[in-house]
């Protein structure tokens, strides 16, 4: 039998949770990852914050108002949700679980609070626990993170100082994640993330038995 004729092995989808302090580069890394691996799809978070220049509804986020967001919380529609700098963010449970059950990989870019909520949910749900892979991305130093925040030019000095203080607390929680990527360059960050994805795909626990 040729390689082309070999039966495919069905595996479970991965739930890739990528987290970082604000400004550390998780959005850039996620976009590069999606561009390099067509088997991964992005989970589009809901948020109550205003759109930034260049962002598109349903592509970058699902932009909704606070009342709608509260209703979705009451109906238990979120896998995780959190308030970050006065704005609310949430991941739709139905979207993520639906893709995983189809054997598709799903990427979630969330803050540390969101990652902790997903990890807690996975401890209660064997299906999610089997799919979960957590990655924390951070620059080597806070001064490098400060430089990146200044380069974005989206924050007032007071906002930047607040974000740096929060970043210090978030970075201290890196040990709660399975993988740590110390950010250097975009290309190297992507290479490391792809290596993690490849390794996790090959776990025997996530594959059906080969046909012999």
Structure description:
The protein is an alpha/beta fold and 212 residues long. 42% of the residues lie in helices and 21% in strands. It contains eight helices and nine strands. The chain has helices spanning 26-36, 66-74, 93-101, 112-124, 126-131, 142-152, 157-171, 186-201, and strands spanning 15-19, 40-42, 46-47, 62-63, 78-84, 87-92, 105-110, 132-139, 179-183. The strands form two sheets. A five-stranded parallel beta sheet has the order 2-7-1-8-9, sandwiched between helices. A four-stranded mixed beta sheet has the order 4-3-6-5. A hairpin with a 2-residue loop joins strand 5 and strand 6 (87-92). The longest helix is centred in the C-terminal third of the chain and has 16 residues, at 186-201. The radius of gyration is 18 Å and the shape is globular. The N and C termini lie close together (12 Å). The model is unreliable at 1-9 (pLDDT under 50).
Summary of the model, kept short:
By secondary structure, the protein is an alpha/beta fold. It has helices at residues 26-36, 66-74, 93-101, 112-124, 126-131, 142-152, 157-171, 186-201, and strands at 15-19, 40-42, 46-47, 62-63, 78-84, 87-92, 105-110, 132-139, 179-183.
Give the helices and strands as they follow along the chain: EHEEEHEEHEHHEHHEH
Structure annotation, total helices: 8
Q: Describe the sheet with the most strands.
A: 5 strands, parallel
Number of strands: 9
Q: Strand order of the main beta sheet, please?
A: 2-7-1-8-9
Q: Uncertain runs with pLDDT below 50, 5 residues or more? A: 1-9
| Helix-and-strand structural type | alpha/beta
Strand content: 15-25%
**Mean pLDDT rating:** 87
Shape: globular
What's the N-to-C terminus distance? Answer: 12 Å
Share of residues in helices: 40-55%
Instruction: Write down the Rg.
Output: 18 Å
């Amino acid at each position: 039998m040729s390689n082309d004729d070999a039966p495919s092995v069905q595996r479970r989808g991965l739930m890739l949770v990528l987290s970082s302090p604000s400004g550390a580069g998780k959005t850039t890394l996620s976009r590069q990852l999606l561009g390099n691996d067509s088997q991964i799809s992005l989970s589009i978070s809901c948020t109550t914050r205003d759109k930034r220049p260049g962002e598109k509804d349903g592509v970058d986020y699902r932009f909704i108002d606070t009342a709608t967001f509260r209703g979705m919380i009451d109906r238990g529609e979120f896998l995780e949700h959190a308030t970050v700098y006065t704005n609310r963010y949430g991941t739709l449970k139905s979207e993520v679980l639906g893709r995983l059950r189809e054997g598709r990989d799903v990427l979630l870019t969330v803050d540390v609070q969101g990652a902790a909520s997903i990890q807690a949910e996975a401890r209660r749900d064997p299906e999610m626990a089997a799919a979960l892979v957590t990655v924390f991305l951070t620059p080597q130093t806070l001064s490098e993170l400060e430089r990146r925040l200044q380069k974005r030019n989206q924050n007032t000095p007071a906002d930047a100082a607040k974000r740096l203080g929060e970043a210090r607390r978030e970075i201290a929680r890196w040990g709660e994640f399975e993988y740590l990527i110390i950010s250097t360059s975009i290309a190297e960050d992507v290479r490391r993330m792809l290596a993690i994805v490849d390794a996790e795909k090959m776990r025997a626990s996530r594959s059906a038995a080969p046909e012999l």
